[in-house]
Amino acid sequence: MDDQALERAKQRIAAAREGRNEEGRFEAALRRSREEVEALGAAALTLEAALPGQVGEAVQEGLRREVLPVARNLGEIKGLLNNAIGRLERMEQELIAERNARLDDLTLLVDLISSGWKGVDRRLERLEQGDTANVLSLQDHRAAAS
User: Cα-Cα-Cα-Cα dihedral of 128, 129, 130, 134, to 10°?
Assistant: First the structure.
């Protein structure tokens, strides 16, 4: 055997040993990867079971915290609007009553004016017919009244 062949054989054996060693490292890395993937899967299952409940609780708590002041404000606004509506209704009733009172006053005034003019018409009619017996001058009327 020559030295070169022996050297090549030793190199092949060394390469085989290194390959086997690398293969062992690869197997160990693969095993560790599988274990970590399984651990990651277990963590994902835990999160999948717990996360919806936690998210739901967080959303409800946030809504409670944010919606409660808004609900109070809406309640106050509703109360103020009801108060304003009540006041407007009272004002409307008062305006209707005032309008009706003014219409009654106007009706009375028109009646007074029309009865006054009717009296004037009757007197003028008597004067036109020549009935001077009942017609008194203003001075005679004042003298009769005193």
Answer: -90
